Amino acid sequence: MKTVLHKAASRGRANHGWLDSKHTFSFANYYDPTRMHFGALRVLNDDIVAGGRGFGTHPHDNMEIISIPITGDLEHKDSMGNVAVIRENDVQVMSAGTGIYHSEYNKRQDEHVNFLQIWLFPKEQNIPPRYGQQSFEPKDRVNKLQQVITADQNGEGVWINQDAWFHLGNLNDGFSVAYTLKQKGHGVYVFVIEGDVDVNDQALNRRDGVGVWETDSIRITAKSDAKILVMEVPMN
């Protein structure tokens, strides 16, 4: 088993006033050759956007882009004609494929929006762009892992163009849960949204992350009430 630890304070940061973004992996002006990606997981940004502000229309291609709001409302518009608001307990996936333009704005004027922006390298290049969004019940992840992203088009969660599965968990202090990887050769990256957990006895705090690979399973134990995101991705 191999592991890589990323403490919250070690992340890159870009503060533009209207945007305060923390980068687990190299992104924009933050570059660290030892932190380019974890397998297919290329970007894990923790973004806070001021009221009424946001990202103007810009292009993407051949990337799987996931948005997970933590607090607030994020308004999305794209060149496929999708107009949507993404809220807490929603998960959005955009397969950029051959190319897409989109914008993201804080829907509210009076408070910030905090969301995780996650990019994965795609399984197949140059597919037609595609949009998916789903709401999830928070009660279904209390002391268990709720699947929100799936590689199976008929599986639970939003389908993605990659052999990847994401789970959210709200764990009570002292609760322990095992995660068994679905495919050999995969790794799993655990990101702590709130609280404190141990992953295979590695202590993690708020906004810490740890990647684990060359293993069949991991065990996550809450050391306080905690919210976590578990991402299984190919390592090749």
Quaternary state of the chains: single chain
The portion of residues forming beta strands comes to over 45%
Largest sheet, in brief, is: 7 strands, mixed
Principal-axis shape equals: globular
Identify the CATH class of the largest domain: Mainly Beta
Strand order of the largest sheet: 1-20-17-22-15-13-14
Number of domains: 2
Q: Which stretches are low in confidence, meaning pLDDT under 50 for 5 or more residues running? A: none
Total number of helices = 0
Structural class: mainly beta
| Separation, N- and C-terminal Cα atoms | 16 Å
Helix and strand layout, with pairings?
Layout: E1 2-6, E2 12-15, E3 19-23, E4 41-49, E5 54-60, E6 64-71, E7 73-78, E8 83-87, E9 90-95, E10 100-106, E11 113-120, E12 130-135, E13 145-150, E14 158-159, E15 165-171, E16 176-180, E17 186-194, E18 197-199, E19 202-204, E20 209-213, E21 217-222, E22 226-234
Parallel strand pairs: 13-14
Antiparallel strand pairs: 1-20, 2-3, 3-4, 4-11, 5-10, 6-9, 6-11, 7-8, 7-10, 9-12, 13-15, 15-22, 16-21, 17-20, 17-22, 18-19, 18-21
Please give a handful of descriptors for the protein shown.
7-stranded antiparallel sheet; 236 residues; 7-stranded mixed sheet; Pirin; metal ion binding; Jelly Rolls; single chain; 0% helix; mainly beta
Provide structural commentary.
By secondary structure, this protein is mainly β. The chain folds into two domains: 11-135, Sandwich (Jelly Rolls); 138-234, Jelly Rolls (Sandwich), CATH 2.60.120.10. The protein has no helices and 22 strands. The protein has strands at residues 2-6, 12-15, 19-23, 41-49, 54-60, 64-71, 73-78, 83-87, 90-95, 100-106, 113-120, 130-135, 145-150, 158-159, 165-171, 176-180, 186-194, 197-199, 202-204, 209-213, 217-222, 226-234. The strands form four sheets. It has a seven-stranded mixed sheet, with no helix packed on it. It is globular, with a radius of gyration of 17 Å.
